[in-house]
Amino acid sequence: MTVAASNAVSIRENGQREVFCGLTSIVWLHRRMPDAFFLVVGSRTCAHLIQSAAGVMIFAEPRFGTAILGERDLAGLADANEELDRLVAQLLARRPEIRTLFLVGSCPSEVIKLDLAKAAERLNRQHSGRVMVLNYSGSGIETTFTQGEDGALQALIPLMPGTEESQLLIVGTLADAVEDRLVGLFQKLGIERVASLPPRRSTELPAVGPGTRLLLAQPFLSGTARALVDRGAELIRAPYPFGVEGSRAWMAAAAAAFGLAPERVAEVLDPLVERGRRALAPQREVLAGKRLFLLPDSQLEIPLARFLSLECGMELVEVGTPYLDRQLMAEELALLPAGTRLSEGQHVDNQLERVRAARPDLVLCGLGLANPLEAEGMATKWSIELVFSPIHGIDQAGDLAELFARPLRRRGALAFG
Ligand code: SF4
């Protein structure tokens, strides 16, 4: 499908940004792969961010930590490398269950040019057979927080075995229960072999090769998709699985790629679609006609805007996205209402001026902007919450709409209270 260029008016902005960095993705990745450990090589700021983002996890045996670069490390790379080796040896001695160790780069490690790829090679030699050491960057320089997952998955791809067998590969972290449901539905449709990246155990990586058809569950995995295509996989082009219609189209695109009859798809999915539409109806009553401004944060903005306008009747004032991968977003862009104002990148002051001028009913934004906007009388929704919530699939459409209806209901209650 080609991009309906007339559908989207692009504004490109470059200025101060208000987004979390890629370290944040450790919060959902470490839950997905409990046998992996994420070691951030960074500063005390990085340690604070990850501990407060992951909240209570520090009370359990955590599956992430920070190798803190002190002043001495910042002055000399030799010290930093030695310190890192010592820390990793200690960690592995204490935690025999760790099978995969991700060294996660940060702004400070990038600024001092600490080569974590080399460090991973060295540590792999030292701990060969005991643990696999990988590296990726979660730095906030020029990235947004969901790109952390893109980096982590790309680090896993070289380790994936090859295969020529026909299979569906779902790519992107899903809640386990949602994944089970979707895999069950694909199998009911007639797709026998369904694998997932990331897997639930870091050592049980799926295979990839010319028989693999790859279906993205998250829209922010550009680098991962390209690397898998380089390994022979074929990308299934589809909207993303948000909302009843988006999820149905996503599953139908996979079924078509496997040559399954549309009648079979209708037979399996139509009862779910009916139920999903019924679940949406009460939320639609709250959302229809309300004006929505989406500020760039998670890279989920375009599929969410499509869902909220087409299925919930919201009016889109502006749809912001940190980065626009036109190839991976083509099907979504084609579904946006004609004339939608689309902005790429961020210049936070300019965007806030446009928000204030438009006075939308609801603003989707990062945590840092939500409080000031609420104080100015606007209802907000935190975009990071959508990355942590189980929102994929037809069955979740009602819950997804509810996440947007709730702040409007609350503000309505306050106004009449
Ligand atoms: S990686 Fe950079 S942006 Fe993220 S917490 Fe560390 S210093 Fe801050």
Q: How would you describe this structure to a colleague?
A:
The chain is of the alpha/beta class and 417 residues long. It folds into three domains: 5-16 and 277-416, 3-Layer(aba) Sandwich (Rossmann fold), CATH 3.40.50.1980; 22-143, Nitrogenase molybdenum iron protein domain (Rossmann fold); 167-263, Rossmann fold (3-Layer(aba) Sandwich). The protein is 47% helix and 18% strand. It contains 17 helices and 14 strands. The chain has helices spanning 26-32, 44-54, 71-75, 77-94, 107-111, 116-126, 147-156, 176-189, 222-230, 243-257, 262-287, 301-310, 326-335, 348-358, 367-375, 383-388, 397-416, and strands spanning 8-14, 36-42, 64-68, 100-105, 132-137, 167-171, 194-197, 212-216, 234-235, 291-294, 315-321, 340-346, 362-365, 379-382. The strands form three sheets. It has a six-stranded parallel β-sheet, with helices on both faces. A four-stranded parallel β-sheet has the order 3-2-4-5, with helices on both faces. Helix 10 packs antiparallel against helix 11 and helix 10 packs across helix 12 (301-310). The longest helix is centred in the middle third of the chain and has 26 residues, at 262-287. The model is unreliable at 1-6 (pLDDT under 50).
What is the 3D shape?
Answer: globular
Distance between the termini: 49 Å
Rounded average pLDDT: 91
CATH architecture of the largest domain: 3-Layer(aba) Sandwich
Question: CATH homologous superfamily of the largest domain - what is it?
Answer: Nitrogenase molybdenum iron protein domain
Which ligands does the model contain, each kind named once?
iron/sulfur cluster
| Class by SSE composition | alpha/beta
CATH topology heading of the largest domain: Rossmann fold
How many domains in all?
Answer: 3
The number of distinct helices, counting runs of at least 4 residues, comes to: 17
CATH class of the largest domain, named Alpha Beta
Rg is 22 Å
Q: How many β-strands, per DSSP?
A: 14
The main sheet orders its strands as 1-12-11-10-13-14
Unreliable stretches: 1-6
Estimate the helix proportion, in percent: 40-55%
Beta-strand percent range: 15-25%
Largest sheet: 6 strands, parallel
